Amino acid sequence: MTISMYQASVPVFIRQLTNLAAILKKAEEHAEAKKIDPSVFINARLAPDMYALARQVQIASDGAKGCAARLAGIEVPSHPDTETTFAELQARIAKTVDFLKGIKPDQIDGSEERTVTLKMRNGDVSFRGQPYLLNFVLPNLYFHYTTVYAILRHNGVEIGKMDYLGGI
Amino acid sequence: MTISMYQASVPVFIRQLTNLAAILKKAEEHAEAKKIDPSVFINARLAPDMYALARQVQIASDGAKGCAARLAGIEVPSHPDTETTFAELQARIAKTVDFLKGIKPDQIDGSEERTVTLKMRNGDVSFRGQPYLLNFVLPNLYFHYTTVYAILRHNGVEIGKMDYLGGI
């Protein structure tokens, strides 16, 4: 097997979203065991002007489905950002993973030079497929996933690096 | 240009270590402006049983140089973990980037199936090159880089997502 745009994107997204779901499951169990209102974790943030946990999960989902759809040249599925419970966040992740599982390697392979245009705050930004994936999507995905992990660790949830990596 | 093991590793490491150096520079300037002892930031952590900032930087450096050396089949350079100041952390990152810049694409390209063996706490673990890079090295690198960012944001340093991404 050689590395390909598909291999470097969709299976990585599925793996990390699955790990994210597993640490959220542990956070939910922790809240239950300690009799802490789950919304304390759902709304927790590391700084007043950083996003809370729920929003971090939504952005991780958006990043993964947006990248896969854009590289494949299909419409980005819209998931309204309404989740306020662990169960709803799990459903959001599951829906995203289902979408990713429906993408075939040949839809994404060869997209290194494909032009991807994003609407950003300051106007449209265009990327080539490869730098879009390597320098924008993956750093962003890991940013939001790690920030969820950091919020939970900061708030006492017992998770570790092996949960983050999903085993080795 | 097609995606390759080199493209997915060394330039990504250099880019993210360069971004890491830039946010540490902003943290140093913030400490100076606010007359806060820099060691407050160097020793800050998000939870009592998470590593402090300096160690997060050291592990990010180790992950990048270790991966590049192992995929290239050359000796991993040893950098003793002695840094306790911003200047020393900058030097550690610069030394790591210098090493990475000396690695040529043809040393790494084609390493998808190369066997990489790591000494872990519980014994040796062997990977194939591609899952080693995609499922272990990159998640770890972004984990430690994002954790540095999170520590600094949690402690009031004014950095944002564009600093993390190094622009788009």
From TrEMBL, chains A, B:
<protein>
    <submittedName>
        <fullName>DUF1993 domain-containing protein</fullName>
    </submittedName>
</protein>
<dbReference type="InterPro" id="IPR034660">
    <property type="entry name" value="DinB/YfiT-like"/>
</dbReference>
<dbReference type="InterPro" id="IPR018531">
    <property type="entry name" value="DUF1993"/>
</dbReference>
<dbReference type="Pfam" id="PF09351">
    <property type="entry name" value="DUF1993"/>
</dbReference>
